[in-house]
Design a protein that fits this description.
Layout (H helix, E strand, L loop, with lengths): L1 H13 L1 H8 L8 E2 L5 E2 L2 H9 L2 H5 L3 H6 L1 H9 L7 H15 L4 H8 L3 H17 L17 H7 L2 H21 L10 H4 L4 H14 L6 H8 L5 H11 L4 H10 L9 H16 L4 H11 L3 H10 L11 H11 L3 H16 L7 H16 L28 H16 L7 H11 L7 H16 L7 H25 L5 H13 L3 H12 L11 H11 L2 H10 L15 H10 L2 H4 L5 H9 L9 H13 L16 H7 L16 H20 L1 H6 L9 H5 L3 H9 L2 H4 L2 H12 L6 H11 L1 H9 L9 H9 L5 H11 L4 H4 L3 H6 L11 H15 L3 H11 L3 H6 L5 H6 L15 H40 L11 H27 L3 H7 L24 H19 L1 H10 L6 H7 L10 H5 L4 H17 L3 H20 L2 H11 L3 H7 L4 H20 L8 H10 L14 H6 L2 H23 L1
Antiparallel strand pairs: 1-2
Helix pairs in contact: 1-7, 6-7, 6-8, 9-11, 10-11, 11-13, 11-14, 13-15, 14-15, 14-16, 15-17, 16-18, 17-19, 18-19, 19-22, 20-23, 22-24, 23-25, 25-26, 25-28, 27-30, 27-31, 31-34, 34-36, 36-39, 36-41, 45-48, 48-52, 52-53, 52-55, 53-55, 53-56, 55-56, 57-59, 59-60, 59-61, 59-62, 60-63, 61-66, 62-66, ...
Length: 1212
């Protein structure tokens, strides 16, 4: 050991000159001194230790360097892992620093001890104490002490000093482990004697460094909290092991209390951590984040914030305001509850200067006072002008943001954490809230927050002088609102909020005021409605009467470019509440112009208040404010104003430039549709008041491009919010023909991905042809077909909107396409263009098309149908040129229009019934007063008549379409007279005209069957009605095979069989025979059994003429029964035998000689001929017609029997 000391002295003498040349003149950094006189490690020294900055270490004073000797001595003596020349030079400088310090020798002596043996003894002592239950009666490390612990430490050698300190430290650590979280303060001479504190600290640092497994630094730090001067020892320990700073702090925070100011242990822990962070201020914010993460030691977080001094001062918001606001207004409810409990518990104790809570409140109050315009009282001299009062100075612009943050923080402290402000705090807060900021956006925000804080905490106004000050300030708000809005350049000013609160107070909607306050402040505060009574009286009696509110609201300017991007409370909120409370109608103030201007000043994204505003406005138009005054309603928007909005669209003109945005047009469309729906829904109420508001004319609706607007809205769904879905709902109710499924599918084919790619990839599609050229090319369509095709091809690349100018030329000349010899490609191209136009202007397009396809006679008379004509009588669509029925592309268009007008007619009649029912009934009731024998017509009769008319329309359309499926006389002649083959499918013989099955008739039949299938699925009653009416038997193969929904007929065939009309019974059996062949289902089998039973029953009751009429067409139907269901063979054969016996008996009574078919059947069965070679004799029609009816029936029975037998043989 003497050699080591001599070596240090030699190094000291040799490197003095080198050190002086390297260090130069560096001033010493004084160590930090606590109130107890102990020197703590300075941030400068700790940073030097962290970075092992030898130059900065050499600049430390001797007292500061003394605290770091344990680490420096170990650093100098231990073999380094870094073998670089730079570290060798640094190590020499460290040795130079140590050479002049006397305490180094004692530390070197401590390091010369055998720590392995010391650790073994320490572990044995721990085991002994564990067995003894923590008793200190025996100790292996320390024998029985002759003197006090301090004297023993003074006179002991280094090893015994280590043993004494280790024994004392282990005892404290064991007691901490057994304390179950209860804090205690251990009295220990060793840690309390001021003379030996530095030597004890050296021993403690050496022990922890050499025995880290026995003495984990986190456990040692926890134990040091239970002794006096523990924070000083802890700082020295961490300073000598700087890498353990975060570990120690995290351990202390995890083991800390949830509320640190509630106990002595919590306060000591907070103070220790605070000292650690003062030693290493760069980590203070990280330690504060750990506090929030663990929800422990809230006072420490506040204390660290109070101690934090940022490098660059932020003039806007202080660190304390930011930190506390983040805790109380953040999204973490656990943190908010934890810190709120800290505020509530801190208020229960007496005011102490050492309390962190009161330090925080004092700091916040100082910041509040610092930004006040100037100190002023709340007393206003009576009769003086508030503007001239010397106490009313403006808030400085650079302080407005900080003032707003302080207001929100105090709102959170009072509303969430339950802070009860002192009189001084309340006085200063009221002064700040009634300050007058500059006209900036931040100033507008500050006034809004101040106003809401007054509403949330009216107890801040407790004296008459304060109440008078508040009224003056509110009056100033009303007066300066317009100036603030114009000067600040914001749309949402505090004037709208004042107006809205006044309306809520008038309508006693205190809950709405509370929601408004909470949303403005950005926090949920529990506000009692009863606390608003004083403010309600002030508003309703002194500031805003209801008449003043309505008059002021109308004069408020609309919000320019209103959208969801504009936050805050706007004029629209105020108008909405006034409309809802019926204030405008009550005071006879017209609001129509304001609403129309606001709807015209809208853009995307759609503001959420617009749709509720329109709904409540419509309600105020139709429903009076009171029954006593039915005329007290608002005026609707005029038709001319609506037309002006749509000026430039396809429905009004062909101009491309739009005067109004798409948002305005969609909102006006929503208004019209909602108005018409509400008008129909309130018919009964309006009839009772003898009031009939005017609905918008059909001419107006015809000029609005509804479908085009819906397409536009579909592409803007995210920006329009719920407007698109609301429009679809209204369309489905009022305009179902614009919401057809096939229409949406066709639109997808027109506007989908493939058409878009086609337009993008093909060359530029600028059309070079005018409408006149297109019209001229149609005049000689047969000869100029290729030229016309070249003109139409570029049109297929145009978008629907660009194609609108050519709609007139395309539809007006569609009749010319019916001439023979027109190319199929030309027809398909025109049909495709028509479908594209149908996506943007369906109603106008349909009217033009129906008029263009009229028969030539009507065209010569220039008879044109209107939209209303087609709604009243949709069958006008089928009164077209007969050649359309054999032109599949045009027939497809015709069927599309027919389906649409049938749906439109239903909606039209429903609306007409609702519109006229109640008024007609009221009129009839008034006219029948005093008269007898004139009962009111029941309402159900009108409904039944309407349903009967709709059913007649649908069934007539179906019958006409089925008739179209029949071949004409010319087509029958081309087939050789057998026209039945034109409608039969699955037969051995097919109609072959112009390409076999792919003929115009067959294509038309397929199109018609598709439409009938849709109609039957939409309303099965139509199928039932049509089949009860009946249609040609020749169409049954086509309808059963071509209409997939024909299986529903199995439900009503039993009812059809039960009808008294014989023709309906025959039609039912014929229909059933085809259904059994097409749908061999169990249900079909049961209905077939019923039909056979009915035929057997009718055999016994029908007269001879009627029997012939019934069985001649129905006996052939037995063959399909047997073919579909072989189990019916027995029943069918039995029926045939019965019919044959009856006919044979009738024939036998006559004088004519006839060989009954039964006898010949027996001969055939008994002959040598096989059953497979049986054949019927061929009989001509003349022969059968001249025969006796019973004879014809016998032949029919024979043919049916032989077909059944042949079917049976083929089955085997």
């Amino acid at each position: 050991m003497p050699q080591l000391v001599a070596k240090l002295i030699t190094l000291h003498r040799g490197f003095v000159g080198l050190a002086e040349s390297c260090l130069g003149k560096v001033s010493c950094i004084p160590a930090k001194t606590s109130t107890s006189g102990l020197h703590f490690v300075s941030p400068y020294a700790f940073a030097a230790m962290q970075k092992v900055d030898v130059v900065r270490l050499a600049a430390l004073s001797d007292p500061e360097l003394r605290l770091l000797l344990p680490c420096l001595v170990r650093m100098a003596l231990c073999a380094p892992a870094d073998q670089s020349n730079a570290w060798a030079q640094d190590k020499k400088l460290i040795l130079r620093l140590l050479s002049g310090v006397e305490a180094v020798n004692s530390i070197v002596a401590l390091l010369s001890v055998d720590f392995h043996a010391l650790e073994q003894d320490a572990r044995k002592e721990q085991q002994l104490r564990h067995k003894a239950g923590g008793s200190n009666s025996e100790s292996i490390l320390v024998s029985q002490l002759q003197h006090g612990l301090t004297l023993e430490f003074e006179h002991s050698d280094p090893l015994r000093r280590l043993r004494l300190a280790l024994s004392e430290l282990l005892a404290i650590m064991n007691k901490v482990a057994d304390s179950s979280g209860e804090f205690f303060l251990k009295s220990s001479e060793l840690f309390e004697s001021p003379v030996y504190l530095e030597e004890v600290a050296d021993v403690l640092c050496i022990l922890q460094a050499e025995l880290p497994s026995l003495l984990p630094i986190v456990d040692v730090a926890e134990a040091l909290l239970h002794v006096r001067n523990g924070d000083w020892f802890l700082c020295l320990l961490v300073a000598n092991v700087p890498d353990s700073f975060n570990e120690v702090c995290r351990g202390l925070i995890k083991n800390g209390e949830r509320q640190d100011e509630e106990s002595v242990g919590g306060r000591r822990r907070t103070e220790a951590l605070r000292q650690l962070c003062q030693m290493n201020p760069s980590q203070a914010l990280n330690i504060r984040a750990m506090v929030v993460q663990e929800c422990h030691l809230p006072g420490l977080g506040v204390a660290l914030t109070l101690d934090y001094k940022p490098d660059s001062a932020d003039e806007a918001v202080s660190p304390l305001v930011s930190y506390v606001s983040g805790l109380l207004l953040g999204t973490n409810g656990k943190v908010r509850t934890w810190f709120g409990m800290f505020i509530r518990n801190g208020q229960q104790r007496k005011r102490e200067s050492s309390s962190v809570l009161w330090q925080m409140r004092r700091q916040l109050l100082l910041e509040l006072v610092a930004i006040l315009p100037r100190s002023r009282g709340t007393h206003v001299p009576s009769g003086s002008d508030p503007e001239s009062c010397p106490g009313y100075s403006g808030l400085r612009e650079e302080h407005v943001v900080k003032a707003s943050a302080l207001l929100r923080l105090y709102c959170a402290l009072m509303g969430i954490a339950g802070l009860r402000p002192t009189d001084e705090e309340a006085e200063q807060l009221l002064q700040l809230m009634t300050s007058r900021p500059p006209a900036t956006p931040a100033g507008v925000r500050f006034v809004s927050l101040s106003f809401c804080k007054l509403l949330a905490f009216p107890t801040l106004v407790s004296t008459p002088e304060q109440e008078q000050l508040m009224v003056i300030w509110l009056t100033w708000m009303i007066k300066e609102e317009e100036y603030f809005e114009s000067a600040a350049g914001v749309s949402a000013s505090f004037g709208e909020m004042l107006l809205l609160v006044a309306m809520y107070f008038h309508s006693n909607q205190l809950g709405a005021i509370i929601e408004l306050v909470c949303s403005t402040l950005g926090m949920k505060i529990a506000i009692k409605p009863s606390s608003l009574n004083k403010m309600k009286t002030i508003f309703t009696h002194e500031i805003f009467t209801e008449q003043v509110v309505t008059a002021h609201a109308v004069r408020v300017a609309v919000t320019n470019s209103l959208s969801a991007n504009i936050a805050g409370f706007l004029p629209i909120h105020c108008i909405y509440q006034l409309l809802k409370s019926r204030a405008f109608t009550k005071h006879k103030v017209s609001i129509k112009d304001w609403i129309f201007r606001q709807l015209c000043e809208t853009t995307t994204p759609l503001h959420t208040q617009l749709l509720p505003l329109i709904d409540v406005y419509i309600n105020s138009i139709l429903t009076p404010a009171s029954k006593a005054n039915p005329e007290a309603t608002n005026q609707p928007i005029t038709e001319q104003e609506i037309l002006n909005v749509f000026q430039g669209h396809a429905g009004v003109g062909l101009s491309v430039t739009l005067a109004y945005s798409i948002t305005t047009q969609l909102l006006i469309l929503y208004y019209i549709l909602s108005y018409e729906e509400a008008l129909l829904g309130n018919t009964k109420t309006l009839a009772l008041m003898q009031k009939k508001p005017k609905s918008y004319s059909a001419a107006l609706m015809d000029q609005i491009p509804i479908k085009h607007l819906i397409r536009q809205a579909q592409g803007l769904q995210q920006e329009l919010g719920g407007l698109h879905s609301a429009l679809l709902r209204l369309l489905a109710t009022n305009y179902p023909h614009l919401c057809m499924v096939e229409g949406w599918i066709c639109e997808e084919e027109v506007t989908g991905t493939l058409p878009l790619l086609r337009r993008m990839l093909l060359p530029s599609c600028s059309c070079r042809y005018t409408q006149a050229q297109l019209h001229a090319a149609f005049q000689n369509v047969v000869l100029s077909g290729p030229a016309l095709m070249r003109m139409l091809e570029p049109l297929t690349l145009l978008s629907a909107a660009d194609l609108i100018p050519y709609a007139e030329a395309l539809t007006a000349n569609m009749g010319l396409l019916l001439q023979p010899g027109v190319a199929r490609r030309l027809l398909q191209t025109v049909s495709k263009l028509w479908m594209v136009l149908n996506t943007v202007m369906p109603r106008r397009l349909w009217v033009m098309t129906v008029n263009a396809l009229q028969p030539s006679a009507k065209l010569l008379r220039q008879h044109c149908y209107t939209q209303n004509d087609l709604l009243v009588d949709p069958l006008i669509v089928l009164r077209c040129d007969p050649r359309v029925f054999r032109c599949p592309p045009l027939m497809d268009i015709t069927l599309h229009m027919l389906n649409g007008y049938l749906l439109a007619s239903k909606a039209y009649l429903n609306a007409h019934l609702k519109e006229t029912a109640e008024f007609d009934r009221q009129t009839q009731t008034i006219s029948n007063l005093g008269l007898t024998g004139q009962p009111d017509t029941p309402e159900v009769t009108r409904e039944e008549l309407k349903n009967a008319l709709l059913a007649a329309q649908d069934s007539a359309a179906v019958q006409i379409l089925l008739e179209v499926c029949l071949p004409s006389s010319q087509e029958e002649q081309l087939l050789g007279g057998d026209g039945e083959g034109l409608v039969k499918s699955g037969q051995s013989r097919e109609w072959q005209i112009e390409g076999g099955l792919l003929s115009d008739l067959r294509e038309v039949q397929c199109l018609i069957c598709c439409l009938l299938h849709q109609m039957f699925i939409a309303d099965p009653n139509i199928a039932k009605l049509v089949h009860f009416q009946g249609y040609p038997q020749a169409l049954l193969p086509l309808t059963v095979a071509g209409i997939p929904s024909m299986h529903i007929c199995l439900d009503f065939i039993p009812e059809l069989l039960a009808q008294p009309q014989q023709e309906k019974q025959i039609f039912a059996i014929q229909l059933l025979s085809h259904l059994c062949t097409q749908y061999a289902l169990p249900k079909s089998l049961s209905v077939a059994r019923l039909a056979i039973s009915v035929m057997g029953t009718l055999l016994t009751v029908l007269t001879r003429p009627r029997r012939f009429v019934f069985f001649m067409p129905t006996l052939p139907c037995l063959v399909p029964f047997c073919r579909a269901f072989p189990p019916l063979y027995d029943d069918v054969v039995s029926l045939l035998v019965q019919v044959g016996q009856v006919c044979a008996a009738d024939v036998a009574t006559k004088s004519r000689d006839i060989d009954p078919f039964i006898g010949r059947l027996k001969e055939s069965l008994g002959s040598d001929m096989g059953l497979s070679k049986m054949s019927l004799p061929k009989r001509s029609a003349e022969e059968l017609g001249a025969a006796d009816p019973d004879v014809q029936l016998c032949y029919c029975i024979e043919a049916a029997f032989m077909d059944i037998v042949e079917t049976c043989i083929q089955g085997f």
